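User: Predict the structure for this protein chain, please.
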Amino acid sequence: MLFPDHLDIPREVRRIAETLEAAGFDTWCVGGAVRDNLLGEVNNDFDLATAARPEDVQRLFTRTIPIGVDHGTVAVLDRHRKPHEVTTFRRDVKTDGRHAVVEFGASIDEDLARRDFTINAIAYHPLESEWRDPYDGHRDLERGVLRSVGDPSQRFREDYLRILRALRFAARFGFTIEDATWEAAKANAEDLRRLSAERVRDEWLKGLETAQRPSELVRLWEEVGGLGIWLPEVSEREGGKGKGDAVRGARDVVDRPTRDPVLITSYLSSDPAATLERLKCSRAEIERGARIGRFRGTEPSGEDPVEVRRWLARVGPAADDLLAITTTEGRDTLLSAAVADVRTSGAPLELGQLAIDGNTLRDMGLAEGPLLGSILRQLLEDVLVDPSLNETEHLIARARQLAATQEC
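Assistant: Here is the predicted structure, written as structure tokens:
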């Protein structure tokens, strides 16, 4: 199959390319947008690679953002203030598996030679409609094969994150990883320990969001060794019985419609908070995972509205995540319907929704202390059983009774 005669390049991208070419700088479209459009996916976020150095780009355009000048990248803002990445042709002169020192002055072919996989090493000239594909990336797209540019071990040693990128691309496109590339990924996987947690986190979460089947991403991470290094709790979730346990636990669960990566991670992990903390997720995400881990498996059947109200009161903000898990697992939707009924009714589920509060009890002469808190909790329990009892006069009378008899 031949390359298409042309790609539909957005007008603003063409204008940037025209300015660079008019100034004498060879300029090409590269990256994911080229690949995705060849696969029939709409992606207008085209990046440009050019012979122009960062200072040249900044001189030629009035509105730019130096987002990665050391590596040759400048964002050019179009008339709608949308940024477009423009990166100088470069070659790697030194790498340590995490960072690269680059040299400018390369050609488009040299620039493509430093890229990770053949499907990402395809360039298109936006003005001449010319293709450049020195590593048969187009053929690999047709075959559904992910293959490293050049020696795969060398590619991975230049940046070990490429191992995880290989897994993400394979799961996203449903591609097979070429044998030599796969063997090199496994051989170099131990050095995934050298990566920063932030980079690993971004690959894992993005991989879950974009995978055709998240369970396939989990399988690839497990087989390459990434789970054991960065996500050991995922394997432990299924009891640690051996290779493949994480996949058996994930299949038919995480492959349902949800693409919430934090929810999927929390479902898969035996200790969601520990997993999310290791990945340096946000405090809110870690707390969310902790709630899921604490209350997972406590869901009532949904048949008894009292138990549903008690459960909602107990789990608080975790309720929607736990409901998503029960739906994902294909369990009876009775609970979801029961929760919807409770929420529609406006039944009180927390202390702040009671018709009286601590000030009311103090006005009754109750001293600040454990007794006051205990009475409020008992009142909430009464109201959870029968929401109609949430009336000021009734609760005051009940509070007096509890205070007199010490029933708390």
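The mean pLDDT is 90.
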